[in-house]
Specification:
By secondary structure, the protein is α/β, with parallel strands linked by helices. Helices cover about 35% and strands about 15% of the residues. It is built from ten helices and seven strands. The longest helix is centred in the N-terminal third of the chain and has 16 residues.
Length: about 240
């Protein structure tokens, strides 16, 4: 629902067919909220979705976009085995890594991580032990306005270790960025509460030169998905490509 204004406007413009899925572990009725079956499942799900769409109609081009953690998933997808399934990417204030120069402490107060648990589970995974990957490792400071609202029961406020890992670029996020040879747009707002947006271009362009960058004045982290100016920039970029 967050993307409804953007998706509606892009679809109405005739730029293409717009698909906005509820990712596994999210949405109205997930099998297990805040969890997946294995690390890498979100990438496989996106590949399945793309293949299903292509089986119904031969689309000339596939553009994969995402916001915040979803932008991190796009970067992970680009660095993985399904890279060739997408022709272009749109990164809206993407999460790179907790220790990337673009990330504010605790994502500006939005996310709280169980750092010791993440370190411990990462060490276990490095030796092949995945029994505890269902444990929660991150929680999100959803506002009471959202939680008490009509869709509060659809809010996903915690992620398991495997979902959190599946949603983010790999530990060597620079390699995932370097794999983004396709054209991409990075767009963010100057008033982003979670990320240091001025660091995006120097960090990412050091790994790949295929991107365009737009920082829009006065727009917040969530606003980059809903502000008409941001939607117009994305529409213009898609049209130019």
């Amino acid at each position: 629902m967050q993307f409804h204004p953007m998706a509606s406007k892009l679809a109405a413009s005739g730029l293409g067919t717009i698909v906005v899925p509820d990712l596994r572990g999210h949405g109205a009725t997930p099998e297990r909220r805040g969890d997946v079956d294995y690390i890498g499942q979100l990438e496989d799900d996106l590949e399945d979705l793309i293949n299903t769409m292509q089986a119904e109609q031969n689309y000339n081009k596939v553009v994969l976009g995402g916001h915040s953690s979803g932008g991190g998933l796009v970067i992970r997808f680009a660095g993985g085995e399904h890279n060739d399934s997408a022709d272009e990417f749109i990164l809206m204030a993407p999460f790179l890594k907790y220790n990337a120069p673009t990330t504010k402490p605790n994502s500006g107060g939005w996310a709280y991580t169980a750092t010791r648990r993440i370190i411990g589970l990462t060490m276990l995974n490095n030796v092949g032990i995945t029994w505890f990957n269902h444990l929660p490792v991150i929680s999100f400071a959803m506002s009471e306005e959202v939680l008490d609202g009509p869709y509060g029961d659809t809010a996903t406020t915690t992620y398991s270790y495997r979902l959190n890992t599946a949603f983010a670029p790999r530990m060597d996020y620079e390699s995932d960025l370097a794999a983004m040879k396709q054209p991409f747009l990075l767009i963010a707002g100057s008033e982003d509460e979670s990320f240091l947006v001025e660091a995006y271009q120097p960090v990412i362009s050091a790994q790949t030169d295929s991107g365009d960058y737009q920082i829009l004045e006065g727009i917040s982290h969530i606003g980059i998905t809903t502000d008409p100016r941001a939607i117009d920039v994305i529409a213009g970029w898609l049209d130019a490509h």
